[in-house]
Design goal:
Blueprint (H helix, E strand, L loop, with lengths): L11 H7 L4 H6 L2 H8 L1 H18 L1 H4 L41 H37 L1 H15 L3 H16 L1 H6 L1 H12 L1 H15 L3 H8 L4 H9 L4 H24 L11 H9 L8 H28 L7
Helix pairs in contact: 4-6, 4-16, 6-7, 6-10, 6-11, 6-14, 6-15, 7-11, 8-10, 12-13, 14-15, 14-16, 15-16
GO biological process, one term: transmembrane transport
Membrane topology: Multi-pass membrane protein
Subcellular location: Cell membrane
Length: 326
């Protein structure tokens, strides 16, 4: 009686699972990565921005002094020029000192942290409000859409700076400067965030109007899924591309808004300096020769906003196939 050797048949499902590319491999094969590797401006901008983020996160480790600790501040060291000034510069203050005697390099590190925190938190707030309102307006349509969009139009008729100046000035006059200084960061996040939500709402609404007519939304309705689940689990993921582009630009706008308000005396207090308050505190000394107190933080702020806008332009081109040139 003869026996026949049978070769086991490979399982095609297991083979496909074993050969499934990882998340990193799929990302490396994506259009976004391909475009990034060819765009030197995007690479440089991302590198500089990550440098800002690292310096902000590790400011207590990198900074040689703590600008919030009064024991490390000596008023006799005020207005010292950068260390490359051979006549009056001090080697331990390589970017000089401000009018309070704080090391400017340490103060810029902590100020960058505050500016980035305000910008990112304000954008998260405005994105949350705008996405929710935009989803509801676009999906429900009709009277709900008209009411919400007219409310957005009214909000857009007031500039962010005008709303912020009125709200912050009234709050400071009503509750006092001391309480305002304690809540300055929270107030700036709330005011800037609430003032800019229509940008997200109008963009999301336009995307939802196009997405809700597609077959996968009809299939979700036939399956009996609720409106909230359809909006947030099915439609929202397909509208994230414009949100990423807007968010990059809006963080830069929020940082500029905070700097402008600080320059007007309605931003962060001098005891908790942001980049804007640093520029403001040194502006009155710029004509007396102590230019570094304003100019150096100003250059740091300009470079930060510039690289974020360049990243936003790159994302817009990559995520919009009509603008992609290959």
């Amino acid at each position: 009686m003869s026996t026949t050797n049978q070769t086991p048949t490979p399982n095609p499902v297991a083979t496909d699972m074993d050969k499934a590319p990882s998340l990193w491999e799929r990302f490396k094969d994506s259009h976004v990565w391909h475009s990034f590797t060819r765009d030197r401006v995007a690479q440089l901008s991302l590198t500089i921005f990550m440098g800002y983020v690292i310096m902000a996160l590790f400011a207590p480790v990198i900074a040689p002094f703590d600008p919030y600790d009064p024991t490390q501040i000596d008023i006799m060291n005020s207005e010292l020029p950068p260390s490359w000034d051979e006549d009056m510069g001090d080697d331990q203050f390589w970017l000089g000192t401000d009018a309070q005697g704080r090391d400017l390099w340490s103060t810029i590190l902590y100020g960058t942290r505050i500016s980035l925190t305000i910008g990112i938190c304000a954008v998260l707030l405005q994105a949350t409000i705008g996405i929710i309102i935009g989803l509801i307006a676009g999906y429900r349509g009709g009277r709900v859409d008209s009411i919400l969009m007219r409310f957005a139009d009214v909000q857009l008729s007031f500039s962010t700076m005008m709303v912020a100046i009125v709200v912050l000035a009234v709050f400071q006059a009503s509750f006092g400067t001391e309480l305002y200084q304690d809540l300055a960061m929270l107030m700036l996040v709330l005011v800037i965030g609430i003032a800019e939500w229509p940008q997200y709402a109008r963009t999301i609404r336009a995307s939802v109007l196009a997405e809700k007519k597609k077959e996968y939304v009809d299939a979700a309705r036939v399956m009996g899924l609720g409106q909230i689940r359809i909006m947030f689990r099915h439609i929202l993921p397909n509208t994230l591309s414009p949100i990423l582009v807007i968010s990059t630009v809006q963080v830069a706008n929020a940082i500029i808004s905070e700097a402008s308000l600080s320059f007007l005396g309605l931003g962060m207090p001098v005891s908790q300096p942001s980049l804007g308050s640093l520029i403001s505190s040194g502006f009155e000394y710029i004509f007396s020769g102590t230019w570094w107190i304003t100019v150096i933080p100003g250059l740091v702020l300009v470079v930060l906003v510039l690289v974020m806008n360049l990243l936003g332009d790159w994302l817009r081109d990559v995520l919009n196939p009509k603008l992609y040139k290959g």
